[in-house]
Amino acid sequence: MFRFRHLQDIQDFEESANETVLVLKLNMSICKQVAEFYRSLFENKELPHTTLDKCEESMLRFERRMRGVISHMDSQILRVEGLLRLIADRKTLLYGLLEFQNTTSNKLLASESHKSSRRMEKVTHEMSKIARKTKTETVSMKIITLVTLFFLPGTFIATLMSTDIINWNNGKQNYQPGAMHVYLAICLPFMAATFIFWAAFQWHERRKERRQREEAEAEV
Q: Residue 28 contacts by C-beta under 8 Å, 6 or more apart in sequence?
């Protein structure tokens, strides 16, 4: 798998090759200047002919060697320039591969985003259905509560009248205080126990909710 680091390596190699071409061209220019300097010195008419005759063979050998060095450096420059063209082609190919990888990654991300949006749409639809159902149930519970509250006083009076606390015998009212004491002695403790149980349950749920909220804040 190609990475951006590979492109950096190719760029560093290309810079080194360009520096090599520059150094070779500078060396080749210096060699030409040196050869021209000695040629101009050899062609100086002020030098004695005997000295020129003695140095002619050495001068020719020096010029042949300098031409060989210059030709060798020229061939090396051509090889490095060919390598630079190859590097440029490979870099273009690598750019294409990286672009293809980015395009593929973007397509995968877009596909996953589309799937996630579809899932969220389904979840939102289900939540909407649950919300409508909850609203309907809440309305039903309110109606049941109102009906219960409406009949509660009558139910209490009917229950109280059905006991032996108050009797009607031949149009006469007969009140039993002892029965009333027994009724209150049984009913009031049960009512108190119910309210205590409800308060304890509410306290437990609030404590549990507060602990969960603290744990969530600690994780964040």
A: 70, 73, 74, 77
Express each pLDDT in 35-60 by its tens digit: 888 777 777 666 676 666 777 777 78
Q: What is the 3-state secondary structure (H, E, C) of the chain?
A: CCCHHHHHHHHHHHHHHHHHHHHHHHHHHHHHHHHHHHHHHHCCCCCCHHHHHHHHHHHHHHHHHHHHHHHHHHHHHHHHHHHHHHHHHHHHHHHHHHHHHHHHHHHHHHHHHHHHHHHHHHHHHHHHHHHHHHHHHHHHHHHHHHHHHHHHHHHHHHHHHHCCCEEEECCEEEECHHHHHHHHHHHHHHHHHHHHHHHHHHHHHHHHHHHHHHHHHHHC
**For the residues 168-189, what does the mean pLDDT come to?**
76
pLDDT tens-digit profile of 82-95? 888 888 887 788 77
Decide: 10 and 98 in contact? Cβ < 8 Å.
Answer: no
Tens of pLDDT, residue by residue over 94-126, are 778 778 878 888 888 888 888 888 888 888 888
Q: What angle do CA 178, 183, 186 make, to 5 degrees?
A: 125
Alpha carbon distance 140, 145 (integer Å): 9
What count of other Cβ atoms lies within 10 Å of the Cβ of residue 40? 9
Strand partners, 167: 174
Largest CA-CA distance found in the chain, in angstroms, rounded: 174
Query: Kind of pairing, strands 166-169 and 172-175?
Result: antiparallel
